[in-house]
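Annex B. Sample input.
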Amino acid sequence: MKNRITPVFFWKLFLTLVGSLFIVGFAYVFITATLAEEYFQERNQILNAPIAEHIISEVKPTIVNGQLSGNALDDIMHHMMAINPSIEVYILDPAGNILNYVVPYKKVKMEKVDLAPVREFTTAGGKAYIKGDDPRKPGESTVFSAAPILEGSTTLGYVYVVLASEEYESAAAIVRNSYIMKLGGQAMLITLFSAALLGAAGIWLITTRLNRMINTVKRFQNGDMTARIDVKSEGGINDLAIAFNEMADTILGNIENLKSMETLRRELVGNVSHDLRTPLSVIHGYIETLTIKKDHLSEEEREKYLDIILASTEKLRKLVHELFELSKLEAKQVSPKKEPFIIQELIQDICQKFQIMASEKNISLKSDGKENNVLVLADIGLIERVLQNLIDNALKYTPEGGQITIAVDTDEDNVEIKVSDTGPGIPEDQIPFIFDRYHIGDKRITLDQNNTGLGLAIVKKILEIHNSSIELRSRLREGTTFTFRLPGYHTYA
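Annex B, continued. Sample output.
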């Protein structure tokens, strides 16, 4: 399989660049030629703006009964030949009708000229770039000079001078074509050639960089998880390299997580298998004993065996229940049904349930709070489960004569609940793992004591779906404190 950019791809990019440059170059030449022509026409008009006034001052034409008087037309022709033989002169009446004209070859096709540009030109004093009608080409416009023929304050007509005759335009077209050819044939080709060389160099650098990136990606694809693209700065194609590196890091992290999860899964399967096998073996063994020795057992032995079987089934039931409960929490199949309730009342109810167990071990179990009747917003059933697991955990590891305290405190937004015991404490290196399910590094946990190893994992998951967390502080030979917070609803007396 190819792992680099082929020359075909390079040439496609290069030809696309050259084609784009040619299109841009021709557009540049066209726009430049058009603007140049506009510039020449504007300059021609401004430079020759006084011609019409000059003709009137020299010839002094008059219009009588709509006709140009005397030999004015001949005088205009001679004067025009002396000043500028490339111009065309038209005599207009006050309405713009063409009365007479001096035009080579008599190719006049219009009988009237629009006077609006003429008046605008005379008002501006010939200093504005204005185009008017071209009598030889209906529908087209051209640069001109104009001046009114006056008798006192009365306008008898206008001298309308077209500054670009047909011969002039033909010559201008030849010059324009020559200019375009020179610009296109020299400047444009030189510019395009230089741009093409620079573009080819740029494309080569880009494709070389892409080839290195492709090789790195292929290495990663083939199993080299350490393959990364060298990036010295951000921006441009480097952003693609940065994105790949971040993706590779994410994939590597996910792989490590999957490996870790697989290890945990194996440990979980092993622990569950052990926990299920132990009570099942006990149940099976004692039932088998009852069956085999049913005629030789005393009533006292029979009851003892049945009690052992009952305890084992209870342990098995509890394990299956907690596994099912934790699985639902981890799969996010449990949604808390939040409602306001008084947290102290819930704590009192739970303490009463555990009071007998505490008394049997001579442990003081009490609740303590700075305020009474504090309302929290949470799922009462799930929070009851949290408190039961924490108190049950504290009872298992608090020695006789010890003390367990459930304290409630409030701040502006939250209610803080602490469950403290005076047990042996937890080793510091075990604290980060204490909420992992089946954590057995803590020597306090022994599955022989009817402990499933899932209680604290369930506590953590329940608080997570309440958008809360649990903190643990413990010191050896002094005790342990679990702390979590719930959102307060409001406090009332």
